Amino acid sequence: MTRIQVANDDAGAGAYTFAVNPSFFDTQDTPNINNFDSLYSGKIYSKLSFDNRVRFFTWEGFPVDRSDINSIIAYFRPKEGQIKYFNFQDLEEINERWPTSDTWKKARIIAIETISRKGGKLVYETVTLRIQPEK
What we know:
The chain is mainly β and 135 residues long. The chain is built from two helices and nine strands. 12% of the residues lie in helices and 39% in strands. A seven-stranded antiparallel sheet has the order 2-1-7-8-9-6-3, with helices on one face. It has a two-stranded antiparallel ribbon with strand order 4-5.
């Protein structure tokens, strides 16, 4: 199974490979269209030239002591706010709706968020990585 990679440049130098693929990812699988009210007719719809909507990847139900999910959290926490390059490999759904067709897609890391499950053994209910496409 191929894994998502993250690098500092669009050549993929020194790429970090996700230790485990996300359980879910949001592809923003609708066109990025705004609508405007018109004075004398119905709404006017316009497709934006660059789709910078935030995408997110979610991992669910990982015990807090698992090294694979902790390596992802440890990698992304200090990089929040930075721009990195992502190679989504064969995830066609996200590749098709990304605003560029490059193999290495430029994105800003918005946040890595963890929510713990209540009660019992310490488990991450969810770990969510939020990224935003950049020009």
